[in-house]
site-specific DNA-methyltransferase (adenine-specific) (Terasakiella brassicae), 636 residues
Amino acid sequence: MTEDTKMDLQSMNIAAEKRQQLKQLFPEVFSEDRVDIDALRRVLGDFVEGGKERFGLNWPGKAECMKVIQAPSVATLKPCRDESVNFDDTENLFIEGDNLEVLKLLQKSYFGKIKMIYIDPPYNTGFEFIYPDKYAENLNTYLAYTGQTDDEGKRFSTNTQETGRYHSNWLNMMHPRLYLARNLMQNDGLIFVSIDDNEVENLRSLMNEIFGEENFVDSIVWKKRYGGGAKEKYLVSIHEYILVYAKNIDALMDIHVPLGEDAIERYYKNKDKHYEKRGPYRTHPLEAMKSFDLRANLNFSIPAPDGTEVFPKRQWRWSKERVAIALERDELDFLKNRDGEYVIHTKQYLKNEDGTVRSTKAFSLIDDVYTQHGTNEIVSIFGNAKVFDFPKPSRLIKRLIEIGTEPNEESIILDFFSGSCSSAHAVMEQCSQDNGKRKHIMVQLPEYCDDGSEAQKLGFQTIADIGKERIRRVGNKIQNGADGELNFNRQKNIDIGFKVLKLGRSNFKTWNGDPEAFDETGKQLEMHIDHVDEAASAEDILYELLLKAGFELTTKIETVEFADKEVFSIAEGALLICLEKEITSDLIDAMAEADPFQVICLDEAFHGNDQLKTNAVQTFAARAAAQESEIVFRTV
């Protein structure tokens, strides 16, 4: 079967996607393709009468949030090779733009593919950037802010208590972003959100609503500083929170993290004949604590090295069979107390029998990483602490990466409030330490640095510029070592590159949702007038089609030749994109013989020749039938 449709240049239709999912689960609640709400409530066993009070989080503007979510984006992400590192080979992304628009654009390509999200959003203290989110003009607002249009007066602003909707504005900003972010997560994915006391209660309620209260994992308390507080009026506040939610908590495996170096040095001090293979060991009393329930089968004697029998004062922790195995493997330590009596301890080696280092459970308290560590990193990278205020320490995020990912999995980690890119720093360093295969996607608004600021003096015009430069410098340090010499001890194949893409208008002149512009634009399309932006490069168009065809933005692209014409081959020929301005029958035949799954061509390349387009449809249909496959043929 072969399709011939005009390519949809908008982002994923969230409402349509949700309706389709609902139809798969509950087909009986649909009538004439519309949802019968009463039927849905009956299926779910909900017989609450309308108009009754109900529990939940409400605020002014909540209803508009769904309009924000469902308003599709007609923007695109334009590649920027000059600011990238290893553009053609890297699998990391840095996206410069308003994160709401970006999250919409990522829906098709990254739906259900993100393993872990970490964000450090504005804490709503009245001094951070808050996005206006007038749902009909998000892109226009952004373009005006970044100077890409001549529009005046549209500026992003802070959210102060004097606005009268202090908490509501913050929730209106967060709700759509968290909703769209959840769509991107894998079924076993985790999201970590940093927050302080200003909005922690509202954030917890909001995330309960979006992710489900049952998917709450924990609230990590981060002790962010040593002490101080001379200026505090009441208590000395030294902590923040990191809320952790799962996409589907039932899909989560047990969470273990590697032992820290401090714990290893502190506890694993003993050595025996197994040291070379299993490393040092620590001990635990085999005698059961009083909290253990009494069990008669755990009261037995154990032979000591001198042949005497050792009995427990109460009972052992292990069974007789387990103790026999431990004796055979030399996994028990026989020590003597002050009275000369044997006390038996179990050995816990640093390494498992397969040589892997033992893991442990993570705590919900982090008390050995401080904000000062983040500041020190900025000084180390840029030589000036004032380049970026209050960056999260990469060590903090590395702890979360250990919780949220496995080194041997090709996980994607997303941060859409990336700031100075502590998250990218953490991902690269963690991969260099455990030879991980993680990738990162950073999203940052190009927020202007203050006039006369230290950042501006160093040549950084925006926060996004700071983040990109940090990734470059950290990558070089990981690759070459702190002293600039080639670091031969680093793990191999660590991806220190990143591909820069910037939010902008579509490369195609499409209807932007303005009813007044529809007639004119519609007539142009009907007349087959060239609707490709003259300023758009072939690579700009290629990446927009890649994104809106649902392919990841790091998918490998090859340039191949068919019938003396240049064609882009995506994912080893799964998608063929032809941007030639002249389509021929030979070119169509050659592309069909390559057996792609999708083919995209410029509509203008047919020059209004409907017969040639019909022949193309028939050619792809015949090839698909012969191969018992499907070829989706689209023009744009």
User: Anything to note?
Assistant: DSSP finds 20 helices and 27 strands in the chain. The CA atoms of residues 602 and 636 lie 5 Å apart. The first helix runs from residue 14 to 25.
